[in-house]
Amino acid sequence: MRVEVLGPLRVVADGRTTDVGGPRLRALLARLALEAGHRVGHRTLADALWPEAEAAEGPENPVSALHSLVSRLRRALPEPGLLRSEPSGYRLDVPAEAVDALLFERLVRRGHDALRSGRHAAAAEHLSRALGLWRGDPLADVGPLPYAEAAVVRLREVRLGALEDRAEAGLALPGEAPRAAELERLAAAHPLRERLRTLLVTVLDAEGRRAEALAAYEAYRTRLAEELGAGPGPELRALHLRILREESAPEPAPVPAPRGNLRAPLTTFVGREDERRLVGERLAEHRLVTLVGPGGVGKTRLASVAAADTAGRAWLVELGAVTEPDAVPHAVAGALGLRVSTLVEALSVTDTLLVLDCCEHVVDSAARLAEELLGRCPRLRVLATGREPLGVPGEALCPVSPLTPEAAEELFTDRARAVRPDFSPTGEVARICRRLDRLPLSIELAAARLRSMSLETLAGGLDRRFRILGGGSRTAPPRHRTLRGVVAWSWDLLTGTERDAAERLSVFASPLTVAAAEHVGVTAETLYSLVDKSLLETNGDRYRMLDTIREYGLERLASTDRLHGARAAHAACFLDLAERAEPHLRGPGQTEWLARLSADRDNLLAALGHAREAGDTGTAVRLGAALGMFWAVHGDHASAVVHLRPVLRASAPCPAHGSPGGPGHRGDAADADGSGGSRQDTNGSGAPGRAGAEEDSAASGGKDDLVREARLRAAAAYLLNATFAGELTDARAVVGPPPDASDPVGAFVAALLAMAEGRSADGTAALEPHLAHPDPWTRAMLWLARSFLDGTAGDTGFGPKDVEHAVAAFREAGERWGLSMLLMSLAYARAATGDTGEAVAMLEEAQTLTRELGTHHGQRVWLAMAHVDTGNSDGARARLEEVVAEAASIRQVALARVCLADLSRHDGDLAGAGRHLGLAREVVRDGEPPDRALYSAAAGYLAAATGDPEAAARHLGEAFALADAMPDMPMLAQVAVGVADLLLRRGEPERAARILGTAHALRGGPNPCNPDVARLTRDLRAHRAAYDRASRLTAGEALAAVRAERDGLTAR
After folding, report:
1. 1033 close to 1041: Cβ distance less than 8 angstroms
2. For the residues 1012-1036, what does the mean pLDDT come to?
3. Most Cβ neighbours (<10 Å): which of 96, 362, 919, 934?
4. What is the CA radius of gyration of the chain?
């Protein structure tokens, strides 16, 4: 996210500009942006926004008003989490270069320093880029606030100095002298500024316009005398005297010995301000600094820029074209215009920086030469670049990483406009840069492609990046003209063992551990070697391969007969991990193993995909069964359905044979340390553990039996997740006929299939024999299934009791996910009956459990909704605003906005409610049925409140259909309340009271603390009898009544 204040205030993220509210919000954002990355105190901000001049009209408590304003600003920003709360203040957490005013001042300082040290080309580049950031008057739409006025004065003064410096730099560069007309305009605007007048007179004289030069001097001298009683300074007087004598400009001093061979850049240098500063600091402290990183990451450009920033001579030696190690000294001597024999003597007389670029293919020779020269030339420093370190004593490393997202997008936009001046960035730019690993060379090659294709075509073609990203600069080294050339250069420098390892590792979809690498035949030593050669990046104890390098490795692997074997080894590795983890997800070890699986989430899904593509049904079924609880605990129910559906369709259904370990598992499958083992572990029921289960399977048919048993557990996992995702409509087609219900797994599957087909009684009958199962987790899941069936049957009396049984069993098992989920369910039930004290206690415990699991981000929206039903709207709002501010998940932010829309509507802020729903619409409309139902219900309530009964009926009808199909009794009750609200607004209070009563019957209580229920109950007091009659209906009768009302709603 970038904040631009050098003109009207703009916030830019993902190529889109965001409008930031009114002048007070803009003033707050601008004040924070001017100190980006630093805390600004509450009092400082309050004084800036409500200065003393406005104290009489300002808020009574400015700090409190500030907090409210910050909440509004967070909602307006595209990345709310970047506005962070600090002790006694707030901080805009963006780098300085993300604020144009701060970047401007940094570039001006760098340009001024370059000008003073005689580096005119570097000065011109920095200053031109700085001045190009101005779009108009700074802080133009912030308002007349003292802090803004002071900032504007300062920025204008800095800009004027930058214009003068740029003009002076241009005078020293061929073809870049400033235009007299521009200087005349500036001099007229600042008539007493002597440096401007000196530059103007110099340029007029240089253009042969001596009379005009003398007139400009005389006008300035006269004005000084009349207004100040003073005269021009000595530099301008000397210039005037020279022109009067018609003397030529002084002869230039003799050309000094070359200060180096660094070429003036042809393109702007984007981003990398921190790395540039770090290289400078390292060079000041160390005599040998090496920039290391993968090909195309921008090491050469960074080295050139950093070298230009240094004082003294700087020589660039390009080693990329050197083919023989012995030729390295000759390449260095040739770049300096010397003989090899005179290198040491020449480099000993003055401070010199030697840039050895692209050392990786001659690393041994470059290292020997650097060590020799540094040892014999005390005034020499060396800056090297390469894929790996030189390995010389005293070497300081500067790892060069891909660009930041903001810098990558700026680079793409800059290069795209070079080939298409009308280019306007969109959100596709961010996605393209991310797909290209934010490597500068890849980005520049991609931007150049816009000469011949649209942005959308380019984005769609990146799956074939090596074909599409060619045709780079004709003057670039061959290895930098295509993306394939860059990667192939690095690949060819590997040993045979390293190449084989890199190809094997390309099957990993996300960072890997040493153990995982060894599982596919790559040793730890080879892994470390690939890190040294920049083919892998490290992050803690994991190793990551850039997608560009990974795709090249896969392409190489696919050209041999080793791809299938590598993928099979990868799938076996993650099947082993998933099956070792699965039993621990059902008990006290849940948090540790959830974290381990989460770190390998992409690898687990890739393994599942590889097994399916290879037709390895056994591995796919076993892996799907093992991941069922992982998806459930994470709340990724839709993902589970998507991945398990094809696995189950591709495998044959079968009756249950295996151990009675419980729904979705096959007993305690590993020892306590997760290592597996050969002994037979047992749970309280004597259910065989993993080794015992495999031995039993071997005795009764071996691997086929193991797969059949896993298929049953995969079916249980599918049905569990599909229930939560509201995706049970095709359950029979996916799972097949009901299995034998003689063991708990089969009973669980049979019960949920029966629920999907509306046969609740059959499902309950399948569960009954197993409800006293001795294993607590198994017992909990069976009671959970029974509570589902109660809800489907409309039995609001037994549902909470079944949930209480499940809660007790989950507590006994030490399992947090099921316990937290059911505590929220019970809290809803308690709130519905008015028992808010117990409901709040349950919610607090549920929140603690989800925080321990690390899944609280996914649960906070539902917790907040439950708080609304307990009457704690302020607490709900605080939690929802946290979700939006942290932006941990697009889906969760969208759901939070749906709930915030309801809260805004309760407060009478209908416009705010509409804004929240508008921001959520795109995400939610393609989401899971529960999400869509929640959105449609909120949209229905809002449409009724804004006087659009037709839209309200349509939205509420959609919400009812989604909730009815799941079925979701709490949501059905919520929709019924919305229907009652709409009927009351239509002038039908008797019907409204009756439907409000059916909502009571659906949820099993009046839900008195819910704001909508409380309002309607109050407004329908005169129709209490109708409400009471409907509230005594059974849930099934109430559901039928709401269905009938829904069917006739639009007609009325």
Report:
1. yes
2. 92
3. 934
4. 36
pLDDT in tens, 552-569: 899 888 888 889 999 999
Contact of 666 with 583, CB cutoff 8 Å: no
Strands of 89-92's sheet, edge to edge? 39-41, 89-92, 83-86
Kindly write down the DSSP assignment for every residue of 486-513, as one continuous string: HHHHHHHTS-HHHHHHHHHHTT-SS-B-
Measured in degrees and rounded to the nearest 5, phi and psi for residue 513 equal: -95, 170
Highest mean pLDDT among 4-18, 51-65, 244-258, 350-364: 350-364
Distance CA 355, CA 882 (A): 49
Domain 928-1052 has CATH 3.40.50: no
3-state SS string for 169-209: HHHCCCCCCCCHHHHHHHHHHCCCCHHHHHHHHHHHHHCCC
Q: SS3 sequence, 1008-1022? A: CCCHHHHHHHHHCHH
Residue by residue, DSSP assigns 17-65 as: EE---SHHHHHHHHHHHTTTTSEEEHHHHHHHHS-GGGTTTS-SSHHHH
Measured CA distances, 226 to 65, 223, 230 (Å): 52, 5, 8
Please name the amino acid found at residue 1033: L
CA 259 to chain CA centroid, nearest Å: 45
- Same fold? 1-177, 494-560: yes
What CATH number belongs to 816-897?
1.25.40.10
Mean pLDDT of 862-877: 82
Most confident option among 18-32, 368-382, 917-931? 368-382
Architecture of domain 178-249: Alpha Horseshoe (1.25)
Per mean pLDDT, which range of 462-466, 679-683, 807-811 is the poorest?
679-683
Euclidean distance between the first and final Cα of the chain, in Å?
Answer: 49
Q: Which CATH architecture has domain 1-177?
A: Orthogonal Bundle (1.10)
- Residues in CB range of 347: below 8 A, 6 or more apart: 354, 373, 377, 379, 380
Exposure string for 412-427, b = 16+ CB within 10 A, e = fewer: bbbbbebeeeebebee
Cα 310 to Cα 287: distance, rounded to the nearest angstrom: 13
User: Which CATH architecture describes the domain 494-560?
Assistant: Orthogonal Bundle (1.10)
The predicted structure's pLDDT at residue 690? 37
Question: What burial class does residue 524 get, using C-beta atoms within 10 Å of its C-beta: 0-12 exposed, 13-18 middle, 19+ buried?
Answer: exposed
pLDDT of 943 strictly over 50: yes
* Tokens (6 digits) for 20: 């930031």
- Work out whether the CA dihedral 461, 465, 467, 473 comes out positive or negative: positive
How far, in Å, CA of 592 to CA of 702, rounded? Answer: 32
**Residue-level pLDDT at 569:** 95
Average pLDDT over residues 525-534: 90
Percentage of the chain beyond pLDDT 70 is 90
What does the alpha-carbon distance between residue 813 and residue 807 come to, in Å, rounded to a whole number?
Answer: 10
Is this model's pTM higher than 0.85 or not?
Answer: no
Segment 907-919 mean pLDDT: 93
pLDDT over threshold 80, residue 668: no
For the chain, which residues make up each domain, given as ranges? Answer: 1-177, 178-249, 273-399, 405-486, 494-560, 569-670+683-804, 816-897, 928-1052
Exposed (0-12), middle (13-18) or buried (19+): which is 257, by Cβ within 10 Å? Answer: exposed
Please name the CATH architecture into which domain 273-399 falls. Answer: 3-Layer(aba) Sandwich (3.40)
**Range with top average pLDDT, 244-248, 408-412, 547-551, 704-708:** 408-412
Closest CA relative to residue 278, chosen from 457, 399, 418, 391: 399
- Packed helices 146-171 and 100-116: angle between N→C axes, nearest 10 degrees: 30
